[in-house]
């Protein structure tokens, strides 16, 4: 009987009930809330579902993220996925997939979109100084501020390059959460800063873009940007390589693989590993709260800056630019462009802004990568 009692006692103590505390319970509830948003509300489910499930797993079974022991003891499953984040492999592959899926034609047809994409990066630098004021050191402030670009892969890339792996989990979760919540966060800001008349502005149809232009664009951008900021090569280079796969027309298999199978595999690995960095000990602290608040403010400032610059362009072009497309200057492709279309259609159902908004949206992806490269250059990181 004592053998049976000891066996049952060991089994009971092996359950997670004896290894979690109230903080883990809080994180499990947050993970379930994220799953609800992903599945029931369909807020970027491809990203939010694996992130939320990784969060759930690590707070039930922390050893799933255990590092490799000094004696060579194997680490947890998701630790190996996470190493690919730290080494900036998965963020770069995500960018290649984004490039393979995205049409850069609207940006080529309207190069002024670069200005709107640049204006939306204001939130990043506003958050940088805000983070300094809240006590973060220079590199940590830079890693936190990049959330303002609403670009998860770039946030992970910069945090790992600047050696801020301790903050990588909260930064990545905040960035991806705000990407998912773009349809909720942006519209009130857009409506507050524009008039009904401005939202009803119809823009002229974009000029046709030749195949040669689409092929040359990724090559030229790679040469120019990477010569000025070589540290952006992993992100900008992979983004443009994926786009070259798409536009060249001679490597259809590579384009389909990069934009489908490979992209989805990388999203699974990156999402679950990022979610698994949010253990209760790492996530429930004041630093995380500061990061979440700063990230939200940065994203709001970036959206506002894009809209305000759009209003300036509207004035300068005598009403030919709808200011709403400026909000798409953040990097959440294509969600931010869709929000511009939605808000514009609410003012006038016959208004079609999607393709016009895709220009600033794509420019925002490049702009956020450039902002990350600028920080790396400032701190001498290669």
Task: Jot down its keywords.
382 residues; globular; mainly alpha; single chain
Please tell me about this protein's structure.
The chain is mainly α. 72% of the residues lie in helices and 0% in strands. The protein is built from 21 helices and no strands. α10 runs antiparallel to α11.
The oligomeric status of these chains comes to: single chain
Quickly give the structural class.
mainly alpha
Query: How much is the average pLDDT?
Result: 90
Rg value: 22 Å
Report the biggest beta sheet as strand number plus sense, adding barrel if it closes.
Answer: none
Q: Unreliable runs, pLDDT <50, ≥5 residues?
A: none
Mass-distribution shape: globular
String of helices and strands: HHHHHHHHHHHHHHHHHHHHH
Strand content: under 5%
Question: Helix count, per DSSP?
Answer: 21
Number-wise, the strands total: 0
**Helical residue percent?**
over 70%
What are the SSEs and their pairings?
Blueprint lengths: L1 H13 L7 H18 L5 H16 L16 H10 L2 H13 L3 H5 L3 H7 L2 H12 L4 H8 L6 H10 L3 H16 L1 H12 L2 H4 L11 H18 L4 H16 L3 H8 L1 H15 L4 H4 L2 H31 L18 H13 L6 H25 L4
Helix pairs in contact: 2-3, 3-11, 3-17, 4-17, 5-10, 5-15, 5-16, 5-17, 7-19, 7-21, 8-9, 8-19, 9-10, 10-11, 10-21, 11-19, 12-19, 12-20, 14-15, 15-16, 16-17, 20-21
């Amino acid at each position: 009987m004592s053998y049976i009692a000891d066996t049952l006692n060991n089994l009971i103590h092996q359950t997670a009930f004896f290894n979690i505390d109230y903080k883990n319970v809080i994180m499990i509830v947050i993970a379930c809330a994220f799953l609800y948003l992903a599945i029931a509300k369909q807020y970027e489910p491809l990203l939010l579902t694996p992130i939320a499930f990784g969060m759930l797993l690590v707070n039930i079974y922390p050893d799933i993220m255990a590092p490799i022991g000094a004696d060579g003891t194997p680490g947890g499953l998701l630790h190996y996925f996470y190493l690919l984040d730290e080494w900036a492999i998965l963020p770069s592959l995500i960018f290649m997939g984004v490039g393979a899926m995205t049409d850069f034609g609207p940006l080529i047809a309207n190069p002024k979109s670069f200005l709107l994409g640049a204006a939306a990066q204001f939130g990043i630098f506003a958050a940088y100084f805000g983070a300094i004021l809240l006590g973060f050191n220079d590199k940590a402030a830079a890693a936190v501020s990049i959330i303002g670009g609403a670009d998860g892969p770039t946030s992970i890339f910069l945090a790992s390059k600047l050696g801020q792996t301790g903050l990588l989990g909260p930064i990545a979760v905040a960035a991806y959460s705000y990407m998912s919540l773009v349809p909720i966060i942006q519209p009130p800001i857009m409506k507050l800063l524009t008039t009904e008349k401005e939202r009803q502005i119809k823009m002229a149809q974009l000029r046709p873009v030749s195949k040669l232009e689409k092929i040359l664009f990724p090559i030229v951008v790679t040469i120019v940007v990477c010569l000025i900021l070589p540290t952006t090569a992993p992100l900008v280079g992979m983004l443009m390589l994926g786009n070259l796969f798409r536009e060249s027309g001679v490597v259809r298999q590579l384009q389909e693989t990069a934009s489908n199978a490979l992209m989805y595999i990388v999203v699974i690995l990156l999402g679950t590993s990022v979610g698994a960095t949010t253990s209760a000990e790492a996530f429930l602290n004041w630093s995380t709260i500061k990061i979440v608040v700063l990230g939200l403010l940065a994203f709001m400032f970036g959206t506002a800056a894009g809209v305000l610059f759009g209003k300036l362009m509207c004035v300068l072009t005598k009403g030919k630019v709808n200011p709403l497309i400026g909000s798409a200057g953040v990097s959440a492709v294509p969600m931010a462009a869709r929000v511009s279309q939605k808000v514009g259609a609410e003012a006038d159902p016959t208004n079609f802004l999607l393709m016009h908004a895709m220009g600033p949206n794509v420019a925002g992806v490049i702009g956020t990568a450039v902002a990350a490269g600028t920080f790396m250059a400032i701190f001498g990181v290669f």
